[in-house]
Structures are given as C-alpha cells and as structure tokens.
C-alpha cells in the first residue's frame, strides 16, 4: 500500500492503521455522528466495525479513505466511494469527525487536502457530497472546500424516523485546478 501523510494547518491525513480502531470505536459510537451519515455507517459503532473498516482500507493498493489525525490520535476519517457505470469518473465524498473536534476548522482543512489528494491520484473528474438538511455544519464544510450546491432533493432521505431533504454538492476537477492556480 502507498504510504500517505498530508499535513494541513489543523491536522494530518494519513493511512488508516490498526491502532486507530480503539479511537474510532470510541469516537464513532455516538448518535450525533450516526444521525448525519448514511445507514451503512453502523450505530452502535463497535471495535469490530472499526477493525473491519480499517482492514478493508489497508488492503487497497491506493488508499481511498484516510484517518484524520490530531496530536497523534485518529479523530475521524475522510474518503471517497467511487461510482460505477456511466458515473465511473465520479465518486461520493464523505467524512466524519469525533464530536469533541467539531467547530474548530479541522474538517474544512481535511476536506481541501483530501480533494487535492483525490484529484491528483485517481482518474476522477467529479466529487459529490450529500448532506441531510439538518446538518448545516457539513454543508459549510463542503462549501468552504469549493463544492457547489447543485440541488436540494426534497424528501429524498428517510433518516431517524423522518423524511428530510438532501442537499447535493459537487466539485469538478477542472474547477478545483483553477482554484489552485
């Protein structure tokens, strides 16, 4: 596996390691995190969930998901899920961060660094992120990382016992490269 270490002003993005499992199992086992993610992110989040996720990622030749490290500890994760078929040059962009670290600008810096890593290492031309209408913090992260709101899909999501709108954001590689020059 390729070794990745990307330093930002607030955190480091790096390969997931088995030693991250305990931190992930503690921080991700939080209903305030799970409520903002798709249902395939389990809650309760156990040590075995963390181990399985980390091992799956460690088996890839090129990491698609990275740990967000702060002061030597993994406090979240950020990554992509490539799309297929006619969407094969796109990927879903997702992330989570332990609640004690919210509101400190960490995720915006991590998102920018991850976008740069992805567009330089994968044959993708588009990243997209979907946010539930009640998650204003995540909308702000994507906006600050250069993503643009493309649409609001009304009643597109059923989460926590209720229908809600999904805000769909996207960032094109060409637009990102222009922002970097």
What do these coordinates show?
By secondary structure, the protein is of the alpha+beta class. The protein has a single domain, classed as Gcn5-related N-acetyltransferase (GNAT) (Aminopeptidase), CATH 3.40.630.30. It is 31% helix and 33% strand. The protein is built from six helices and eight strands. An eight-stranded mixed sheet has the order 1-2-3-4-5-6-8-7, sandwiched between helices. A hairpin with a 2-residue loop joins strand 3 and strand 4. Helix 1 crosses helix 3. The chain is globular. The two termini are 30 Å apart. The mean pLDDT is 97. GO terms for molecular function: acyltransferase activity, transferring groups other than amino-acyl groups. Keywords: Transferase. This is GNAT family N-acetyltransferase.
What name does the CATH topology carry? Aminopeptidase
Helix content: 25-40%
What is the ordering of alpha helices and beta strands? Answer: EEHHHEEEHEHEEH
Task: Output the structural class.
Answer: alpha+beta
* Residues in β-strands, percent: 25-35%
Spell out the key features of this protein.
globular, 6 helices, single chain, transferase, 8 strands, alpha+beta, 181 residues, Aminopeptidase
How are the secondary structure elements laid out?
Elements: E1 5-7, E2 12-14, H1 21-27, H2 31-34, H3 47-58, E3 65-70, E4 73-82, E5 90-97, H4 106-121, E6 126-132, H5 136-144, E7 148-159, E8 162-172, H6 173-180
Parallel strand pairs: 5-6
Antiparallel strand pairs: 1-2, 2-3, 3-4, 4-5, 6-8, 7-8
Helix pairs in contact: 1-3, 4-5
């Amino acid at each position: 596996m390729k070794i990745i270490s990307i330093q930002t002003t607030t955190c480091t993005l790096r390969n997931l390691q088995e030693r991250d499992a305990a931190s992930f199992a503690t921080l991700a086992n939080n209903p305030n995190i799970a409520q903002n993610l798709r249902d395939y992110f389990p809650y309760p989040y156990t040590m075995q969930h963390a181990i399985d996720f980390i091992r799956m990622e460690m088996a890839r030749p090129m990491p698609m998901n990275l740990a967000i490290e702060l002061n030597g500890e993994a406090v979240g994760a950020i990554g992509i899920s490539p799309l297929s078929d006619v969407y094969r040059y796109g990927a879903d962009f997702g992330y989570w961060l332990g609640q004690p670290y919210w509101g400190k600008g960490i995720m915006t810096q991590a998102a920018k660094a991850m976008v740069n890593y992805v567009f330089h290492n994968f044959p993708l031309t588009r990243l997209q992120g979907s946010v539930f209408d009640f998650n204003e913090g995540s909308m702000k992260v994507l906006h600050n990382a250069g993503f643009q709101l493309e649409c609001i899909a009304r009643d597109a999501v059923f989460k926590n016992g209720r229908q809600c709108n999904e805000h769909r954001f996207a960032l094109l590689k060409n637009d990102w490269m222009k922002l970097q020059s």
